[in-house]
Amino acid sequence: MSAADLAHNCLYYMSLMREVEDRIERKLYRQGKIVGGVYVGRGQEAIPVGTALVAEPGDVLFPSHRDMAVFLIRGVTPGRILAQYMGRAGGVTGGRDANMHMGDLNHNIVSIISALAATVPVAAGAALALRYQGKNGVVFSYFGEGSTSRGDWHEGVNFATVQKLPVVFLCNNNQYAYSTPLSLQMACANVADRGPAYNMPAEIVDGNDVLAVYEATRRAVEYARAGNGPYLLECKTFRMTGHSAHDAAHYVPKDLFEEWGKLDPITRFEARMLAEGWGTQTEIDELRAAVHREVDEGVAWAEQSPYPDPATLLDGVYESS
Amino acid sequence: MSTTYLEAIREGLWEEMERDPNVFLLGEDIGAYGGAFKVTAGLFERFGARRVVDTPISEAAIVGAAIGAALMGLRPVAEMQFADFITCGFDQIVNFAAKCRYRWNASVPMVVRAPSGGGVHGGPFHSQNPEMWFVRTPGLKVVAPATAYDAKGLIKSAIRDNDPVLFFEHKALYRRIKEDLPTEEYTVPIGKAKVVREGTDLTIVTYGAMVWVALEAAGTLAEEGASVEVVDLRTLLPLDRETVCESVKKTSKVLLLHEDTRTGGMAGELAASISESVFEYLDGPIVRVSAPDTPVPYSPPLEDAFLPNAEKVVEKARWLFRY
Predict the structure, then answer these.
(1) Could you list the active site residues of B?
(2) CB-based contact (8 Å) between B121 and chain A?
(3) Within this chain, do residues B131 and B225 fall inside the same structural domain, yes or no?
(4) Is the pTM of this model over 0.95?
(5) Which ipTM did the prediction report?
(6) Minimal CA separation from A155 to chain B, in Å
(7) Which domain holds residue B316?
(8) Do the beta carbons of residue B71 and residue A122 sit within 8 Å?
(9) Residue B51 · residue B24 · CB < 8 Å
């Protein structure tokens, strides 16, 4: 892929995620069309985009709730994601679960559960299976820095490193776990500092620089795919919203929002594209318009999708039911 | 040649591993050591470290890794060293594994083996019967065999099942019971109870090690002229209410027996089902014999007082006959 094509992909998926999430949080949620929780990754789009663009089709991804672009890159349409948020039959889980609680093994994506770090040992098991089956796949295990306080995070990482499993651990360190700042979450300065305890290489990357994330992910994935074991990548970023749509984040100092707002991964990357000659302003404007249209169509598709039939309530608890 | 309950489980694991290369084991000390109870003895030598995976002391990782491998199409069998330690993997079982299919149509064909039960002087953390924590979690299947035949047949069915199955194997039965097993291959269906002794005057519904207590009590009561039917649930979830209710319709009296503690035990659910479905057939109250609502004590006189036994069952049955 040429540098310009890669840049175009990066900008397209970051913009698409931003637009879908803006539509969800700032329009559909406020219109009462989304009855449950809304958690967005605004300002963190470079992380799911820069990582998932590295993934091969046979790689298995475990995105967190702020990694919507993983789904988009894997071919899950905005319409299905919007329908998911709206509890419609056309949503990824058909109304069984909400927001980013979704997975699709046809796309090699495994769903999170609410206790987010619970996916980390599961990701290790998926990696064990890929090796067992003689496949060359790598597992992408996503989590926030908050998850690294959990016992199951440590159990999963420990098992993966002991077994030298092909997993890349991808941390979006957005500095807040709900309202709890880093200083009350962990005594070390960086999530990457946890790597040496597991004899695991750990790298810190600017999580608001999509190409830096992309390059670091390539290094991590190459290491894991070669059979060297897991690799920890800490992407430093900032949560530009509250924990969820109902949280105004009064506990976050205003100057932090201002400071990190200047590092917005999309506006930053647009400037970089122009400077590097990877695209023109006209192309960027066209991309933005195309994304807008795509999301319009997705919203329309989701709104016409019916609600699930209550008669299906009992279906699918077991294979035979 | 007679096969013990423990050997029957090992034979079931062994046969399924020979039959299906996707079946593998993981757990603590299950490899060269052969497991704390030696259920997996010999499997490491036969199948190697790839298929008999020794893990750190890390139940969340064991269950979580089993889920991940199952999602990728393997058929992992995870061993909890003691059922008591399953709490450390609780979130993985009830929130992750149990809900995958309903939420996003993903199969988790995983088995978690859990050596449970008292009568071995194991104390509060090596004697519990934690099955009901899981029986009220839709999406799981829970089995608890009482015989070597069923242990082998059910572990094979559990491994072939495409939903997560918890397999509670009773430690007190491991080497205490044995029987001749068929030489030809067989399985036992999940979700089917079995009438293990036929009778006309009273139904005892139970499972696990208490099946043997029920049979002993039935023998004593027979000497007193009472004909007792014993129903072995074998599977606790999904529950075979039909077999239970059919038996109650025949005998009109029912005693519910479990080694688990009283409140929230299986007897409560059975009593509600019987009352809803066959109330008009009853000619006496639905009665329970169970452990009391205490932790499992260690010292023999305390544990003996804690555990249900044939005398307690006989006493309760006599009371019901007098009613």
Answers:
(1) 126
(2) no
(3) no
(4) yes
(5) 0.97
(6) 5
(7) 194-322
(8) yes
(9) yes
